[in-house]
Amino acid sequence: MSELTTAQVQHVARLARLEIGEEELAALRDSMGNILTYIERLSEVDTDGVEPMVHAIELSNVFREDHVKPSLSREAALSNAPSTDGRYFLGPAILDGDQ
Amino acid sequence: MTKLTPCQRPVRTLLEQLQVGDLSSTRLTEECLHEIKSQNGSLNAFLTLQEESAIRQAEAIDQRRARGESLGLLAGLPIAIKDNICQLDTKTTCSSRMLENFVSPYDAHVIEKLQQADAIIIGKTNLDEFAMGSSTENSYFGMSRNPWNTEFVPGGSSGGSASAVAANMAPLALGSDTGGSIRQPAAFCGLVGLKPTYGRVSRYGLVAFASSLDQIGPFSCDVYGSAILMDAISGHDQRDSTSLPYPALELTKDLDQPISGLKIGVIEELMEKSVDGDIVAGVRHAIDVYRQQGAEIIPIKLPHAEYAVATYYIIAPCEASSNLSRYDGIHYGYRAKEFSSLTEMYSRSRGEGFGTEVKRRIMLGTYALSSGYYDAYYNKALKVRRLIRQDYDEAFKNVDVVLGPVTPSAAFKKGEHSKDPLTMYLSDLFTISANLTGLPAISVPCGLNDKGLPLGFQLTGKALEESTLLRIARMFEAQGDWKTNRF
After folding, report:
1. How many CB atoms lie within 10 A of CB B451?
2. B483 is known as an active-site residue
3. What angle do CA B189, B195, B196 make, to 5 degrees?
4. Minimal CA separation from B329 to chain A, in Å
5. Which of B234, B334, B366, B439 best probes binding to A when mutated, by most A CB atoms within 10 angstroms?
6. Residue A61 is assigned to a structural domain of this protein
7. Bridge partners (DSSP) listed for residue B194
8. How are strands ordered across the β-sheet holding B401-405?
């Protein structure tokens, strides 16, 4: 039985960088608990010696020639950013006051 | 204009009319726009329209046709695009507040292919936010509705695309299918919907949800429509490293040629356990139609199929939690207005920008991948995934195709499942195996239930054998108008 505690859910939310209100957090705790309980049925399956299957069609490494090709212009790359100075993406300062 | 009933405009008929000159592309495009204007208020299938460019393109196609120029495969046919596929200088919102104002700086591979095929892109369609959902109720821009009965959902996550084609707003649409998001809405709306073999269609420009499962595919009223759309969009693309190194398909070529000595595998147990009577009746009817055409029906076992939902709801959220970490409020997308640190800017932007279902999946994935749980959840799921694939490989030693339901029920009412996420997840029981295994699978309409809602059945094929799969689907379709079957 996967009973999640509020503290566990808060921890996961911190890892996922998601700010979640109290009410939503309680709802998530309950629904995640239900889903994880359902998922636990996988422990019934004997998987000894089974290789994990990461991709549906297993291609080995795909290589290409290392040639320069056209890519997005700086202007296009910055065009959807919430804040830029025309050359760079701008975010809040991190050296002062943030851990 | 006369009022059309749902799914009244099969692609095969439209292309014939366009080719002989009974219909112009301009006229067809105007008719589609007319349907959109009169119905989109109630169906909410489209999020954005490209009216002017569509008409302009249609006129250009008509002129080129009049001059006798050679035209692309889809010349003059309007097509709707799920709004998680990037189109240059056009909004791509994924039905999320996070991307409400995102204007794509480039075209997806499939958009380039559609332009080469002379298709006319008419607009972008609604979806469950970031393609996470089975009803299109999880859209930041409001739910879409089922044209057969607007009290019912169109399915999801590609519900807008399905609703658009069923309501004759566009003869073709593209969707994406990560766990059934093309096939389930196709079944709910009386359409043909195909999830190709993983890697058949380039994912370049498809906004990533779960990269090892995502695949773009077609919606249409007839098998021919899905076949010709696949011919146009399939083929290798260097920009997607999982794109298969094979040329474009030619599915329309042998489409009308039945498969002789056809062997169909049926999983009785799974169906008996968890499926509504009308669906069972529809599936049995499809089996009978094939049997009458000489097909051999062979009972098969897929012992791990019952673990597909649990496996999927580990793998898909894990991949989603990783993919969606790119939404950081810096490069593009929503940024919160107030914050006192970088970390708070991240958390608040994501907290405000994502809806509840998206948060739930990111949380599930983050939990399953976090220290101490990785082996128990993610690695375990990857192992069961291989067992599920091995079941199919075993079955395909004896059969050409596996036939079964697409969904446990016909379309459900809006609000019916939205309170309980697990119930919604369980309704994906029959569709997600094709994503986990990478196999191609198609939803084919087979009748209406007593509420007048469409019913579908699913065919799952061997890897890379879309041609066989569509010919088998066509064998059923050719036996008569499915809309006259009542179950």
Report:
1. 12
2. no
3. 150
4. 7
5. B366
6. no
7. B442
8. B46-49, B120-125, B78-82, B172-176, B216-220, B192-195, B441-448, B454-461, B401-405, B263-266, B296-299
Task: From the candidates B157, B220, B234, B433, give the one annotated as an active-site residue.
Answer: B157
Is A26 contained in some domain? Answer: yes
Q: With CB atoms and an 8 Å threshold, state whether A56 touches B421.
A: no
Per residue in B457-468, pLDDT (tens digit) is: 999 999 999 999
Q: Do A15 and B370 touch (CB under 8 A)?
A: yes
- Residue B341, classified by CB atoms within 10 Å of its CB into exposed (0-12), middle (13-18) or buried (19+), is middle
pLDDT in tens, B358-395: 999 999 999 999 988 899 999 999 999 999 999 999 99
Residue type, B13: T
Band (pLDDT 50/70/90 cuts) for residue B2 is low
Task: With beta carbons less than 8 A apart as the criterion, state whether B66 and B75 touch.
Answer: no
State the Cα angle at B210 between A4 and B274, rounded to 5°. Answer: 70
Chain A residues lying within 8 Å of B333, measured CB to CB:
80, 82
Q: pLDDT per residue over B426-468, tens digit each?
A: 989 999 999 999 999 999 999 999 999 999 999 999 999 999 9
Q: What residue spans define the domains of chain B?
A: 11-257
- Cis bond upstream, residue B157 (ω within 30): yes
The pLDDT tens digits of the residues spanning B99-112 come to 999 999 999 999 99
The CATH number for A25's domain is: 1.10.20
Contact present, B404 and B457 (Cβ < 8 Å): yes
Homologous superfamily assigned to B11-257: Amidase signature (AS) domain (3.90.1300.10)
pLDDT in tens, B33-77: 999 999 999 999 999 999 999 999 999 999 999 999 999 999 999
Radius of gyration of chain A (CA): 22
**What DSSP state is assigned to residue A79?**
T
- CA-to-CA distance for B148 and B151, rounded, in angstroms? 9
Q: For the residues of A13-64, what is the DSSP string, one character each? A: HHHTT----HHHHHHHHHHHHHHHHHHGGGGGS--TTPPP---SS-------
Cα B240 from chain centre? 19
Other Cβ atoms closer than 10 A to A95: 5
